[in-house]
From TrEMBL:
GO biological process, alphabetically ordered: phosphorelay signal transduction system; regulation of DNA-templated transcription
SMART domains, alphabetized: Trans_reg_C
DNA-binding region per Swiss-Prot/TrEMBL record: 205-302
GO molecular function list: DNA binding
Entry annotated with the keyword DNA-binding: yes
Protein name in the entry: Transcriptional regulatory protein, C terminal
Keyword DNA-binding part of the UniProt annotation: yes
InterPro entries reported in the protein's UniProt record: OmpR/PhoB-type_DNA-bd (IPR001867), Sig_transdc_resp-reg_C-effctor (IPR016032), WH-like_DNA-bd_sf (IPR036388)
Transmembrane segments: none
Length: 304
């Protein structure tokens, strides 16, 4: 009887200690997420202020004060533009400012009137790759007070648990979650290859042909038709991953691990956003098509 009671107490102590460790991990994860959100807001603030400053300079205004950037929510930022600016200059200047801050999220841009909040102009970041230019380009802009607002696409799709109630989760579920993470990492460990490694189709200069298009990994460029696209670091890594495995289905988890794992926090939405960018760049390439495999991942089909 005493032996059984002692064993039960020992097991209870082990379970309590493990739950305590799990709780600390959860708190640490939440702290890291909050810190990441703060850093993103700071970078978005700087990018928007730089854009407003350059817009005024392009319009010959070097004296007006740049007002503070207002954060409307976790992903939306706004700055007041009381003096006329050239809307045609906005897309490229904003793109450059975001790249300087290493912000790679997708976004929507709207220009609203200060007095009533009516939308006057606006575009989506994918419009930057359109031949005809961004939406509302070339329209007459009257001198007035405007609010330049940028809404970033959220990378956090995970539902948040109620604060302070994590210990109510069943112990078995916690163990199952940990077991799945370990199994998932082990399953992919031997499948992940260095993304920078040259492929059988790449020469010493790391160039590869995708149909009639040419992808240069080192210089991060994609020449498709008569257009040369300058890729971001993540876009180049993702395209290189597809190029190494033509006509093969790549699981979403494998793509995330190969392209985004070095960021520490892996976000599923990134895959869809970046695949959409690559599709846009390869829109005029009939021999290459990136297709979604429902519930699994993506496949780059290369036709001969």
């Amino acid at each position: 009887m005493r032996l059984a009671l002692s064993q039960a107490l020992m097991n209870f102590g082990k379970i309590s200690f493990l739950m305590f460790v799990i709780g600390l991990c959860i708190l640490k994860t939440e702290a890291l997420a909050n810190n990441e959100n703060f850093r993103f807001a700071e970078k978005a603030n700087l990018a928007l202020r730089r854009t407003a400053h350059l817009l005024l300079l392009k319009n010959g205004d070097s004296l007006s004060t740049i007002p503070p950037v207002k954060q409307i929510d976790a992903n939306t930022f706004s700055i007041r533009m009381e003096h006329l600016f050239d809307y045609e200059q906005l897309p490229e200047l904003l793109k450059q400012s975001l790249q300087m801050q290493h912000i790679e999220r997708g976004y929507n841009v709207t220009v609203l009137k200060c007095d009533n909040g009516e939308v006057q102009l606006g575009y989506n970041f994918l419009d930057l790759n359109r031949k005809e230019g961004v939406t509302c380009g070339g329209r007459t802009q009257k001198e007035d007070c405007y609010r330049l607002q940028v809404s970033f696409i959220s990378e956090n799709e995970e539902p948040k648990t109620a604060s302070g109630n994590w210990w109510l989760l069943p112990f078995g579920s916690a163990l199952a979650g940990l077991g799945f993470i370990v199994w998932n990492r082990t399953r992919h460990r031997n499948n992940v290859l260095p993304i920078q490694a040259p492929t059988a189709n790449m020469g010493n200069d790391s160039k590869t042909s995708l149909g009639s298009s040419v992808f240069d990994l080192i210089n991060q460029t994609l020449i498709s038709g008569s257009v040369t696209h300058q890729l971001t670091f993540r876009e180049a890594k993702l395209l290189a991953l597809f190029a190494r495995s033509p006509n093969q289905v790549l699981e979403r988890d494998f793509i995330l691990k190969s392209v985004w794992e070095d960021e520490g926090v892996i976000v599923g939405r990134s895959v869809d956003v970046f695949v959409s960018r690559l599709r846009k760049m390869l829109a005029n390439e009939p021999a290459v098509k990136i297709t979604a495999v429902h519930g699994v991942g993506y496949k780059m089909e290369v036709f001969s």
